[in-house]
Structure formats: C-alpha cells, structure tokens
Amino acid sequence: MIRPQNLAKMLFAAILLMGIQSGETRAQDFPLKGAFAGNGNDFSGAAFPIGGFTGLFDPNTGTAEWTTYFGTLSNQTTSFVLVQEVYPNVYYYEQSVIFTGGSGFYAGAGGTADFTGFINLATGDYVGFIDGVLTRD
Question: What is the pLDDT of residues 8-46, one digit of tens each?
Fold first, then answer.
C-alpha cells in the first residue's frame, strides 16, 4: 500500500521529470525597483534584485551598459522627456527603456523600465528612480 506522503513525493518527482524532459524553458519576471545618480555619461546605483551597479550611457546610440556583480545588463532608451523646469537649469525628467540582453546572469534578459528624476543641465548631475520589470529566460 502506498502511503499518502510517498504518493505526494512520487507525483512531485514525476512532474519535475516531465518538465526537465520536455526541455521547456519559462521566462521569469522580476520587479525592478531602485535608484541611481550620475554625472554626464557615468552613473551608479542600486536596485532590487540586481544589487549595486555602475553604468555607462552612450548618447550617440541611446544605449547604456550596467555592470553588476552577476554580469552586465544592456538597455536602449525609447523616450526621454524634460517634463518641467523646477529650478533654474534643473528639470524633472521621465525616461523609458527596454532591456536588450547582457552577459552572465543577464544573458537573454528583457523587460522594460521607467526612470523618473531630476537633471541639472548646467552641471550634468542627475538622480533617478527605477520602476520596471526585468525578464530572464
């Protein structure tokens, strides 16, 4: 006679093996929340779940490369709007990006994020907040 706890273990093992044998992969979505600061093309910050990062923005292509402990993550800016001047030369901005892959843990990464913050056009200093979703295969 099969005990209920053993039956549950066997069913779990069978389901697990079926998933492994099918070769099916599923994307995982992670909420991406954080903050950053920078000057010019260089920025750094921290976000959940990627941790601390440094980055470099290429204004010619609109792309950025984020370097983390787990690999690099790339994004492409899809829109950037200076919404309102809040102080002389200081503007509230909104930016949207799509993630276009990376290396290491972020190989095949995708997703989108919105950045909102403030930029000083006279000094090049900026701060921002990240709200998005990171998708990993």
Answer: 555 444 444 444 444 445 578 999 999 999 999 999 999
Segment 70-78 shows an average pLDDT of 93
Helix-then-strand count for the chain, H and E: 1, 8
- Fill in the amino acid letter for 20: I
Confidence of residue 136 (pLDDT cuts 50, 70, 90): confident
Q: What is the DSSP track for 63-129?
A: EEEEEETTEEEEEEEEEEEEEEEEETTEEEEEEEEEEEEESGGGTT-EEEEEEEEEEETTT-EEEEE
The CB density around residue 37, as the number of other CB atoms within 10 Å, is 13
| Amino acid occupying residue 105 | F
- Residue 112 near residue 97, CB atoms below 8 Å: yes
Q: What are phi and psi of 4, to 5 degrees?
A: -55, -40
